[in-house]
Automatic annotation (TrEMBL):
Annotated metabolic or biological route of this protein: Lipid metabolism; phospholipid metabolism
Quaternary structure annotation from Swiss-Prot or TrEMBL: Homodimer. Probably interacts with PlsY.
Name of the molecule in the record: Phosphate acyltransferase
GO cellular component labels: cytoplasm
Function: Catalyzes the reversible formation of acyl-phosphate (acyl-PO(4)) from acyl-[acyl-carrier-protein] (acyl-ACP). This enzyme utilizes acyl-ACP as fatty acyl donor, but not acyl-CoA.
Keywords: Acyltransferase, Cytoplasm, Lipid biosynthesis, Lipid metabolism, Phospholipid biosynthesis, Phospholipid metabolism, Transferase
GO MF annotations, alphabetized: phosphate:acyl-[acyl carrier protein] acyltransferase activity
Compartment(s) of residence: Cytoplasm
Family listed: Belongs to the PlsX family.
Length: 334
């Protein structure tokens, strides 16, 4: 299996990308990694070169502050765009990037293309839960608006992802809402609810945002507007809590001593509640596997992104989603 990695994407590229790719290539000899980017810059960080790593030179780089659509259309030789072309032209089965999220979504749509029948792909990161199992959330910002039918597709794709990649036999799918009753919500969620009830998924009904961290479901479905607000709220709350704790623990000598005792447990808890620790987020619905790593990814995060991609390819994630969407379309037409 061939995985293209945007070597120039991310806050610490290309160094950590190269390091993570080398570690992954050494771990899995059935994976061929194509590092895409400035060849000289990539080679300057290659302390060793496993046989299953090659470099595809690309002159340009899409920066974090570039306007996504303009950048993808104008920078034809950008590392991210070239990696997308490799997937489109079947020279790679998957691509990974820690670069500009909007540009990666645009690359997915304009370069890789959608699975036939998919109206809109969705960004699906894992959110942390108190029991450590995590919940797959989609969409968290790829599309601000959605139709009931698109939410249904998100639910089906999310269910397949958790089953194939995480090995959950019957993933529980919930619909993000303001209450648990079926009649609750806005017009979008009221219309989506019966569609999900009839879908070939383990639908557990509406889930309030206060229940997301309690692992009330394995997949939480929402439009990108509500999902992104939920994500930013979780991030902001976590940041505020740990900032307040830091202030309290540094006030007096006794509080500093208490902090020293509690530090290992607090550090462990902070990592558990950090969604960036849960690996790369797939753009589900594209006609090729596209994974988004966090911009601040280190070498271990890139290594884990390759691991995720490898599992998804082994389980034929994209093919399974395509077949299920085609089957659902045929059932509706018959």
């Amino acid at each position: 299996m061939r995985i293209a990695i945007d070597a120039m994407g991310g806050d610490h590229a290309p160094k950590v990308v190269v390091e993570g790719a080398i570690a992954a290539a050494k771990e899995w000899n059935d994976v061929h990694i194509i590092l895409v980017g400035n060849q000289a810059a990539i080679e300057s960080h290659m302390t060793e070169k496993p046989a299953n790593i090659t470099i595809r030179h690309a002159e340009e780089v899409i920066e974090a502050d570039d306007e996504p659509v303009k950048a993808v259309r104008r920078k034809k030789d950008a590392s991210m765009v070239v990696a997308g072309k490799l997937v489109r032209e079947k020279e790679a089965e998957a691509m990974i990037s820690a670069g500009n999220t909007g540009a990666l979504m645009t690359t997915g749509l304009l370069v890789v293309g959608r699975i036939p029948g998919i109206e809109r792909p969705a960004l699906a990161p894992m959110l942390p839960t108190m029991d450590g199992s995590g919940v797959l959330a989609l969409d968290l910002g790829a599309n601000m608006d959605a139709t009931p039918e698109q939410l249904l597709q998100y639910a089906i794709m999310g269910s397949i992802y958790r089953a194939k990649v995480h090995g959950i036999a019957k993933p529980r799918v919930g619909l993000l809402n303001v209450g648990t009753e079926a009649a609750k919500g806005n017009e979008l969620t009221k219309a989506a609810y019966p569609l999900m009830e009839q879908a070939p998924i383990e639908f557990v009904g509406n889930i309030e945002s206060s229940q997301v961290l309690k692992a009330s479901c394995d997949v939480i479905v929402c439009d990108g507007f509500a999902g992104n607000i939920m994500l930013k709220t979780l991030e902001g709350a976590a940041s505020a809590i740990f900032s307040a704790l830091k202030q309290e623990f540094t006030k007096t000598l006794f509080s500093k001593l208490a902090a020293a005792i509690l530090k290992p447990g607090l550090t462990k808890f902070r990592k558990k509640m950090d969604y960036t620790e849960h690996g790369a987020a797939p753009f589900l619905g594209l006609d090729g596997l596209v994974l988004k790593s966090h911009g601040s990814s280190d070498a271990n995060a890139i290594y884990n992104a390759v691991r995720q991609a490898r599992i998804a390819l082994q389980k034929d994630l994209v093919g399974t989603i395509s077949a299920e969407i085609s089957r659902g379309k045929r059932d509706m037409e018959s």
